[in-house]
């Protein structure tokens, strides 16, 4: 397969922040030996995997792509990391991201931008651009990402790979550096839908260490993918086209490939209907308030005392507030500061109801839109991102942060509602020859439907 891929093996991507050569090779050798001695091994034993550097790993640094955690080594493994070890998957290393997962381009990493393997002058999406670029360039067959507002799916879309945001609570967040806790979810990055399903089965399932963890077992995803890919696998599947997530603001070639994907579904026997989700138009605004509020609260712990970096004020006046201020001024990048300030303001006394409270109401309305839509269909479909990969440096978000935030318009509603979604490749946009992604969305705890529909369309 690699020989057929013109993007395989491209170097200079800056997909990895840390490469875990020795340990990965020794796990691989152990698996080889076990296999030779006829030991029964888990299905993905020996399959290497890259891990987003927001997930803590014993024995490898974890930075969240921030100067705040430069050189920090976690004393423990996250649940998903423990499960990768139990599955005997060699961990290749830690992948680059926007600092603390805030962004859509990986340009906000404190350790340099990751490049899109399709065109090294373009963004790989974000925040999980490192995981998506590594998978696309055949530097890793699988990777883990995290998705708070689209950070697994939008990078998958713009790199032509597969990315899944599972149902909220379906994969443990224990040992995942929190960005916005009510939205964060870990999920697979891969080159095929079946690969994503197999990885989801490894990392998913109940974890008593995460109070929001569901009790559902993580089974049936791979079999759903195989059923969807089989002859007639999509027959009778009711697919809802989300009216609000097409048209204005979507690049012509993205729209065209999306329409073709819908036609393919129809010709495979799916029943296509149009659904209306009138409150989706408020989702982006609600997300940026809720997310920023939770960011300001979650990142308060980086105080120069408990974790990572400590920067002392140069005048020697060392009160706790001034050490905290100097540490946060030096340790956080501009985007993290912007969101922390916005969130702190939104949560402050006198504004809480007007901002955070209203945003939570919108969140409920978005959930109701999903519920109503899923009465008419099994899965929803939309483009994953409004455009293909744009050139690095082309969005001046200091002048206009909204322009960057608009990238997330199609991915955010699912995070607000906690429902699962998958992005998969839908061909190249005719005008620029770059990958386009489409996403399926399913009701909560119906992740198997994504694998069925995704593998059927793939
Ligand atoms: N692009 C979104 C943001 O900047 C998504 C982030 C994410 O999913 N981690 O908030």
From TrEMBL:
The record's GO molecular-function terms, alphabetically, read: ATP binding; glutaminyl-tRNA synthase (glutamine-hydrolyzing) activity; transferase activity
Task: State any GO CC term.
Answer: glutamyl-tRNA(Gln) amidotransferase complex
Q: Active site located where?
A: 52, 127, 151
Might you name a Gene Ontology BP term for this protein?
A: translation
| Superkingdom of origin | Bacteria
Q: How does it assemble?
A: Heterotrimer of A, B and C subunits.
Q: Its family?
A: Belongs to the amidase family. GatA subfamily.
Q: Please report the name of this protein according to its UniProt entry.
A: Glutamyl-tRNA(Gln) amidotransferase subunit A
Question: What is the species listed in this Swiss-Prot or TrEMBL entry?
Answer: Kocuria soli
Gene name of the encoded protein: gatA
Which section of the whole protein is represented? 43 to 500 of 539
